[in-house]
Amino acid sequence: MKTRYIPEAPPRAEVDALAGAVLLEFGANWCGHCMAAQAPLAEAFAGRDSVAHYKVEDGPGRPLGRSYRVKLWPTLIFLRDGQEVARLVRPLKADDISAALAQIDH
């Protein structure tokens, strides 16, 4: 699991072409809601090494976040072979995150 949001995001076409289970996490390092989600995210992510994790810094003019219509942080988008399977906005429960991860990690 990644721990810092990075400003360099892959282009949408590259994300759409990713194979397997992928978690896109949109937010910002200074965001209180994002910080609050980190402990339950780490708990849910434990043992899921097969899931690729992209922790993308989002904000105005950031094309990847806009292409997914991200409005609130953090937004977690769960992809399987480039297709969105589930989405959680401002999750605070590890169980909710685990359930979404189970949909893509099999």
Labels describing this entry:
single chain, 106 residues, alpha+beta, Glutaredoxin, 4-stranded mixed β-sheet, 4 helices
Protein topology:
Blueprint: H1 12-16, E1 21-27, H2 32-45, E2 52-57, H3 63-67, E3 75-80, E4 83-89, H4 94-104
Parallel strand pairs: 1-2
Antiparallel strand pairs: 1-3, 3-4
Describe the 3D structure.
There is one protein chain. The protein is α+β, with helices and mostly antiparallel strands and 106 residues long. It has a single domain (12-104), classed as Glutaredoxin (3-Layer(aba) Sandwich), CATH 3.40.30.10. 33% of the residues lie in helices and 25% in strands. The chain has helices spanning 12-16, 32-45, 63-67, 94-104, and strands at 21-27, 52-57, 75-80, 83-89. A 4-stranded mixed sheet has the order 2-1-3-4, covered by helices on one side. Helix 2 links the parallel strand 1 and strand 2 (52-57). The model has no long low-confidence stretch (mean pLDDT 95).
Rg of Cα set: 12 Å
Number of DSSP strands?
Answer: 4
Q: Going across the major beta sheet, what is the strand order?
A: 2-1-3-4
Most strands sheet: 4 strands, mixed
Question: How much β-strand is present in the residues?
Answer: 15-25%
Tally of DSSP helical segments: 4
